[in-house]
Design brief:
globular, alpha/beta, NAD(P)-bd_dom_sf, Rossmann fold, 10% strand
């Protein structure tokens, strides 16, 4: 486990070990974990430029003011969008690329627990936010991440360590239970990130499980199971919740620490790996079980998901699942948008 003091110590060194003017994009940051991570980034980085995407203009005004108080030298820009729609994702990416040539951090925490509904583009709404929109953001912004110096990192907040089988007859997860759907989506994400890492070995990719954090996502419940889960958490939540500030600190650590280096460090001094490690913290093992291999699935405490997940993912690779997932994903994007680039 990476202790909270080690996390805080690493974050305290962001300003003196990483370049000034880091550019970060936070997708789904007008509440919850995304908001907490954005605020820690504002608190810790030198003259940062942060873009955050969400649906609430009112929340954005409050968050912008708070970030400017935390760091008067930073720039904080809100982009209003419903990113469950792939067309909106593309529009946001075009706006970002008009403003920034390079991006250091892409932080993805958009999501919903609504199920049994489709978006207007024909995607199951839960998967649209948790998988398809996030993957589209990464594909679109990967050239900008590759252009960055000092740090190149993607963090997707989902359920790292809770991988499961992938059902190729129901990639969108329309007929699955919520528990089966979680493992299915997480494994699809692992497969997609490994494919993207082949295209960009100088970028590191993380999928993490944040633990029990009070985020407010339960307001969108539309099934009995998710409603029941919310009731249970109302009772036991105070006993198990990770404080929102700590969650923000840990996620900033995931986004900046050299514990999670890319497969290939292009910087001569290795600075693209992130904030140097203390003696107590070791480089993490990747989804393939190898140390520092560039794609990481981790628990809330920052440690690797373990040998069972490595074995499961190895089995999926042996079945050619990465190629199947990628073919399906690109096929859905082509159906919605066409084969043109952003």
């Amino acid at each position: 486990m990476v202790s909270l003091p080690d996390v805080q110590s690493s974050n305290a060194h962001i300003a003196d070990t990483l370049p000034a003017g880091l550019v970060a994009v936070f997708v789904g940051a007008t509440s919850g974990i995304g908001e907490a991570a954005l605020k820690e980034f504002a608190r810790s980085a030198r003259s940062p430029r942060a873009y955050f995407i969400g649906r609430s203009q009112e929340a954005a005004a409050r968050i912008t003011a708070e970030c400017r108080q935390l760091n008067p030298e930073g720039e904080f820009t809100f982009i209003k969008a419903d990113v469950s729609l792939i067309r909106n994702v593309d529009k946001v990416c075009r706006e970002l690329q008009n403003k920034e040539k390079s991006i250091n951090i892409l932080f993805l925490s958009c999501g919903t627990i609504r199920s049994g509904e489709d978006t207007s583009e024909g995607l199951h709404i839960l998967g649209a936010a948790a998988y398809y929109a996030r993957t589209r953001f990464i594909i679109n912004l990967l050239p900008n991440l590759k252009q960055a110096t000092g740090l190149r990192r993607v963090v997707s907040v989902l359920a790292g360590g809770h991988e499961g089988p992938i059902d190729v007859t129901d990639f969108q997860g329309r007929t699955m239970s919520m528990l089966k759907l979680r493992g299915h989506v997480v494994s699809m994400t692992d497969m997609a990130l490994e494919t993207l890492a082949e295209q960009a070995p100088e970028v590191s990719f993380i999928i993490d499980y944040p633990g029990a954090v009070k985020t407010g996502i339960g307001r969108e419940s539309n099934t009995f199971l998710t409603w029941l889960m919310n009731v249970v958490l109302m009772v036991i939540g105070p006993l198990v919740y990770i404080p929102i500030r700590e969650s923000g600190e840990r996620h900033l650590f995931f986004a900046t620490s050299a514990k999670y280096p890319p497969r290939v460090c292009l910087d001569a001094a290795g600075n693209s790996a992130g904030v140097p490690l203390s003696e107590e913290v070791e480089v993490a093992s990747g989804t393939d079980g190898k140390v520092g291999s560039g794609v990481y699935t981790i628990h809330w405490n920052g440690e690797h998901a373990g040998p069972k997940v490595v074995k499961l993912l190895a089995g999926l690779r042996a079945e050619g699942m990465a190629q199947k997932v990628w073919q399906h994903t690109v096929g859905e994007f082509d159906r919605i948008i066409g084969s043109k680039d952003v």
